[in-house]
């Protein structure tokens, strides 16, 4: 595993974005696994800036997002569909037909999960997957549990995740209780993974994921078994690691 210990959020964002820059430059047809949440915002801003300068072209790439809240319509400002549009897609030249998110409104959620796994497979698999880390060590919305769920699945969000994400909603009651998320197998099959972390509040999760036992109770700990993971964090988020 490669670890980049950056001074602050902005440096972390630039460094993580530079890995996407390299990936797209070397292979413009890359399949990118994307994440939402607060952490990637700086990365996306940087990618947009490089695109505006003419240095990054997204026209041939494919994007596949990790997850989506269940039963939240795409036009809802807190849906991940909306997030991706506002914070990345509408500012770059990725083709709408090349960017995938789980369909939160699908009537048959199980079928939607199978469809999403097929999308990933038919794309040829993810070349570069971006991950944030939940405070409880979740990746995507793979919450702590007794086993690792492999494929795309419907998940009931952990109380700690609902608590952490209430900041985006008017009240905690408005936070969806369920989501559709890529499973651990899809994530682990990505050829390269970049984990972006920032802030002291993530320090314990980072320690548990990267220097604790590999256990489904800390889903991100499975990343220790992947042979091409780059952890990019600011000093606060990496402060508990023995480096
Ligand atoms: C988002 C996702 C989540 C977040 C994690 C961290 O698509 O899959 O795993 O990456 O909850 O969120 P932030 O960055 O808001 O701390």
Description:
- This protein is an alpha/beta fold and 243 residues long.
- The chain has a domain at 2-132 and 189-196 and 224-231: Rossmann fold (3-Layer(aba) Sandwich), CATH 3.40.50.
- 30% of the residues lie in helices and 17% in strands.
- The chain contains seven helices and ten strands.
- It has a seven-stranded parallel beta sheet with strand order 1-10-9-6-2-3-5, with helices on both faces. Strands 4-8-7 form a three-stranded antiparallel beta sheet, with helices on one face.
- The radius of gyration is 17 Å and the shape is globular.
- The site of fructose -6-phosphate (F6R) has 14 residues, from loops.
How would you classify the helix and strand content by structural class? alpha/beta
Q: What shape does the CA trace take?
A: globular
The count of DSSP E runs of length 2 or more, i.e. the number of strands, is: 10
The CATH class of the domain at 2-132 and 189-196 and 224-231, by name, is: Alpha Beta
**What is the mean predicted local confidence, pLDDT?**
97
Blueprint (SSEs and pairs):
Layout: E1 2-6, H1 9-26, E2 31-34, H2 41-52, E3 62-65, E4 67-69, H3 80-87, E5 99-100, H4 109-122, E6 128-131, E7 153-156, H5 159-165, E8 178-181, H6 184-188, E9 192-197, H7 203-211, E10 229-234
Parallel strand pairs: 1-10, 2-3, 2-6, 3-5, 6-9, 9-10
Antiparallel strand pairs: 4-8, 7-8
Helix pairs in contact: 1-2
The structure holds fructose -6-phosphate (F6R).
Fructose -6-phosphate (F6R) binds at residues 35-39, 66-67, 132-134, 138-141.
């Amino acid at each position: 595993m490669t670890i980049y210990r950056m001074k602050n959020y902005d440096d972390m964002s630039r460094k993580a974005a530079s890995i996407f820059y390299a990936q797209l430059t070397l292979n413009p047809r890359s399949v990118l696994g994307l994440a939402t949440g607060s952490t990637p915002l700086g990365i996306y801003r940087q990618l947009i800036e490089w695109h505006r300068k003419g240095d990054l072209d997204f026209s041939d790439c494919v994007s596949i997002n990790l997850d989506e809240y269940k039963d939240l319509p795409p036009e809802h400002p807190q849906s991940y569909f909306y997030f991706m549009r506002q914070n990345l897609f509408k500012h770059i030249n990725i083709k709408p037909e090349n960017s995938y998110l789980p369909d939160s409104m699908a009537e048959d959620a199980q079928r939607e999960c199978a469809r999403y796994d097929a999308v990933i497979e038919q794309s040829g698999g993810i070349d570069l997957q971006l991950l944030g880390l939940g405070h409880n060590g979740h990746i995507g919305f793979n919450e702590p549990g007794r086993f690792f769920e492999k494929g795309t699945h419907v998940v009931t969000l952990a109380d700690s995740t609902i608590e952490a994400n209430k900041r985006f909603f008017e009240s905690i009651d408005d936070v969806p209780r369920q989501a559709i998320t890529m499973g651990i197998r899809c994530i682990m099959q990505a050829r390269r993974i970049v984990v972006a972390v920032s802030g002291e509040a993530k320090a314990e999760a980072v320690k548990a994921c990267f220097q604790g036992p590999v256990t489904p109770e800390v889903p991100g700990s499975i990343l220790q078994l992947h042979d091409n993971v780059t952890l990019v964090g600011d000093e606060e988020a990496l402060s508990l690691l023995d480096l």
